[in-house]
Amino acid sequence: MADSAAAAVEVVDLGAGKIQVRGALTFATARRARAVGLKLLTDRAGPALEVNLSAVTASDSAGLAVLLDWLALAKRHGRAIRFTDLPAPIRAVAHISDTESLLTQGLTASSAERPSDDSDSRKSTATSIRP
Predict the structure, then answer these.
(1) Which residues of the chain register pLDDT less than 70?
(2) Cys bridge to 9: 23, 35, 98, 106, which one at CB 3.0-4.6 A?
(3) Hey, what CATH topology would domain 2-128 get?
């Protein structure tokens, strides 16, 4: 039973445009975290979102993929998104894969509203992320 507890993840709507991820954000939980997060991102009103990761207890490259997917969705919906308290393992994988700035700088409302086309992909780092 310890394995199921270790593989648990919650994506919680805290209200006022704030979401908190709690538990393991790993290969074992990525599918669930992605689905719940996408629902929250599309169902909640407001131009800006803050995703707090301070309660993440374990993370890996699948956790990074979830966050990048949420970033891409926010961009498609013209919403700003910011990640706070990034876990060290996600930050390390993001650094190696050259995506750290996307997570640490987030996506502002003005960059989210900018149309995306291939000619502009070198100017906007958020444009280069496609799910």
Answers:
(1) 1-7, 107-131
(2) 23
(3) Transcription Regulator spoIIAA (3.30.750)
